[in-house]
Amino acid sequence: MDRRQFLFLSGLMTGMTFMPARKLLAHMFFSTGKMYPIREHVGYYVERGGTIGWYLTSQHIVVVDTQFPEQAAHFIERLRETNTQPIDLLINTHHHFDHTAGNIAFKGIVRQHVAHENARANQERIARQRGTLDQQLLPVTTFSDQWSTQIGDETIRLYYFGPAHTNGDAIVHFERADVVHMGDLVFNRRYPYIDKTAGANIQNWIAVLKKARKTFGSQATYVFGHAGKDWPVRGTTADLQAFEDYLKRLLDYVRAAHRKGMTLDDLLTQTKAIPGTPEWHGEGIERSLKAAWLELVEGK
Question: What residues are paired with 149 via a beta bridge?
């Protein structure tokens, strides 16, 4: 743990009498999931599923995404070591199960629950299809383009820049801390899931990343939904640019392959990597190839 993390956590523990500082530090950093502070009471939590973002003081709590029920329960335990009050705000960046299945753990303890209007519709649609609506906690408040609120000393602003990973991806900006939670709009050096069943659009995804870089700038710290092995879920505009470049090269490669007469089966059997993107490797390339083919060749 570096000095900045120690000072941050020491600040969180000020006034606490129900747990010794040494025990809290051990619990936060060496138990199943881990809390990583960034600055100004904003940080992220990793365990299993999409990265959870948080704003945490002794008076206020904001949560971004919830992973799965078990992991959400672990995370709530961490929060309760600092703050036992109702959670001010729960945000879902999009509807996917690894970001929203844990919503149910927050039932009855959240004052406000927000997502993009399409994300809420997608979550409800899939739950009805699966017959699991009773296991979901759906957002109550929705927005179309932009939404904001003030909680404690922090302003939280949500943006929707159009279809990308899905048709309902919200970007969450903690303005005072200048921390931006990108949800699954960035898979840092990991082959992305591109959800064509929920309106994903790779060409617009590239535009969304470019707009995010322009909107939030190079001084912001970015939190990503997922990362490849040995790569962090925290980064900079350079990581947004790298993923943007990956998507461009993916489209160029599939477009050129189709012009040469290759079929989708040819692509899937012959492609081991997308040319020009050596940091993307391992399993999952077929997800990118299939989605790009659907978009460029089949117009879906």
Answer: 156
Residues 160-197: pLDDT tens digits?
999 999 999 999 999 999 999 999 999 999 999 999 99
List of residues 6+ apart from 292 with CB closer than 8 A: 194, 202, 250, 251, 253, 254
The Cα–Cα gap between 250 and 202 comes to 9
Can you read off the two tokens belonging to residue 126?
Answer: 């899939």
Distance (Å, rounded) from C-alpha 36 to C-alpha 54?
A: 10
Cα dihedral 126, 284, 52, 278, rounded to 10, equals -150
Long-range pairs, 14-21, Cβ under 8 A, ≥24: 14/58, 15/58, 16/58, 16/81, 16/82, 19/81
Q: What is the pLDDT of residues 192-248, one digit of tens each?
A: 999 999 999 999 999 999 999 999 999 999 999 999 999 999 999 999 999 999 999
Whole-angstrom distance, CA of residue 257 vs CA of residue 209: 25
Pairing of strands 113-116, 179-181: unpaired
The count of C-alpha atoms lying within 13 angstroms of the C-alpha of 206, restricted to the half-sphere facing its C-beta, is: 12
> Where does residue 1 rank: exposed (0-12), middle (13-18), buried (19+ CB within 10 A)?
exposed
Q: Which amino acid is at 133?
A: L
Element (H, E) at 174: strand 171-174
**pLDDT value at 3 more than 90:** no
- CB-neighbour burial class of residue 298 (10 A; exposed 0-12, middle 13-18, buried 19+): exposed
- Residue 282's region, left for phi above 0, alpha for psi from -120 to 50, else beta, is left
Measured in whole angstroms, the distance separating CA 29 from the mean position of its chain's CA atoms is 21
Amino acid letter for position 76: I
pLDDT of residue 32: 77
